[in-house]
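User: UvrABC system protein C, Ferrimicrobium acidiphilum:
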Amino acid sequence: MLERPDKASIPDQPGSYQFRDREGRVIYVGKAKSLRSRVSSYFVPPETLPAKTRAMMAVADSVTWITVASDAEAFMLEYSLIKEHRPRYNIRLRDDKSYPMIAVTMNEQWPRAMLVRGARRPKIRYFGPYANAGAARDTLELLLRALPLRSCSAAKLARHTRDGRPCLYYHIGRCVGPCIGAVSQGEYREMVERVSQFLGGQASELARSIEGNMRAAAASLEFEQAARYRDELVAIQNVLERQEMVISDDRDLDVFGLCADELEVSLQALRVRAGRVVGTNGIIVDLVEDLGDEEMLTRVVELYYAEKAFDYPSRVILPSPVGDRERLEVLLSELAQRRVQVGVGQRGRPRALVATATENARQEFRRNRTRRATDHNARASALVELAEQLGLESPPLRIECYDMSHLQGTNYVGSMVVMEDGLMKHRDYRHFGVSIPKNDDFAAMEEVLRRRLGRLLDEEAKTMDRSRRFAYRPNLILLDGGAGQLSVGIRVLDELNLSSSIALASLAKSYEEVYRPNFEEPLRLPRGSSALYLLQTLRDESHRFAITYHRRRRTITAEVSVLDQIPGLGPKRRARLLEHYGSVYEIAHASPEELVGAKIVPEAVATQLLDRLTKVYGTNPSPVEE
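Assistant: Predicted structure for UvrABC system protein C:
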């Protein structure tokens, strides 16, 4: 039973608090303007608490807190802790869609615009996200016809710069040719800013500016330049025609719609920039906490801006009031570093936009329900069938699969992939560098299993201070291999006294036979069965994960070892060479004059470097016209 901490010991400051269970796992993360008031509110008679909060307090064994300077810092701290620990009793983001965005690589000398997905990286400008990848791709293509930034990779740019010859895109007018110096750095940066201006919602201003430049060029009798401005203007107007004007002024808005029940909520946003709808975005979350309608809306909007938003509007329109509108405004303003107003769409055009966003949320809610119900039923059926086929006491909710990869006994690596509730849990995947000095798959498998299961036991015994990400026991361990790998697994589990709590199996590639302890003959699951498909998915994923890691290590080892053998080529020169040429292969095919002309290494070092690389990659090929 969790004892109530001394109220005086709890700081009366903003911050984040964390409830932990007896195993030390974080089960709930919250934030508060006053930690003293918020934490104390949990220690009341249990019957007065909401049901879900009461269940959490029954499991909690301790509470800790971290103080910060402001509400915004408390919010970001809470978000980062939730991302790290995935607490059981916090609302959880369940939308696994990766929306496309347009990124401008400001971290490069010659930036490029491209369509990307996934997490944001520093020093890159992001615009979007877009609900429709095709529409985003069309927008980018039309825009780059008017403002043709480069689209090639860094390695290709370096190669064409070194050769002094542009690629085909320059000849057809789809690139301004930074690789051959056809455009100055200042002119190129101006184009980049114009692309960013358009994608940032200032398309009308950009169109007016280009039209003014076109008229000025025509008045100065610079008709070729005027024609180029005309083509830019036409391309931009074509993009603008595809974007619906929803308000008459140039305001930037995020308009939210909501659809929820007792278990989950769908939040969808219409992103309006300069009066035009530039995209939609949204999230689906599980409602694990007991929250009122106003608090639920506040928490979900906060989660949206922490997880899915890539820019901040000047005004946020909500479908209903929130409990502390001023506090939400302060939070968003601090995050955006400028004033953000929060309002409710009660009349006029804002009300119509809220209705549209709400309908989008309702449709996404229905699609998600149908999709999840179908997926859940199929996964549950496969796990039940697998338990029956393998003779397990219950369906294995967590399965770990292991595989080894090597090249003639070198660069030995192991992989562990994880499936929970029939879904691959990518964040729990692990690589293992194996110390076995020779080609011995059995010894390598034994080392990996001992390390993983030993870590499990240490974490359960609380003898490790690191993050407890390995603390969850698998219900089933699957090994890629046959009877030999199974015998290794049996030996390790027996020695660690885990054979009674963790089931074991191995899947052989030859006839897709499954080996189990205490079974005289291997099992042959029916072809096309859900259980066999599930095991094959695990085996193939572990193999892919191991091979990918092995290739990366082998490439790094080969390239570093080659460059390490050159006298006078230290870490700084190696880094500069790889940055300039893009890869060791490109360095190997540079001429001595080019290598010396780059002013990275002296002539003597360049000669030794090319001699060594020629033995690895062959002689320099003769130039070929593109």
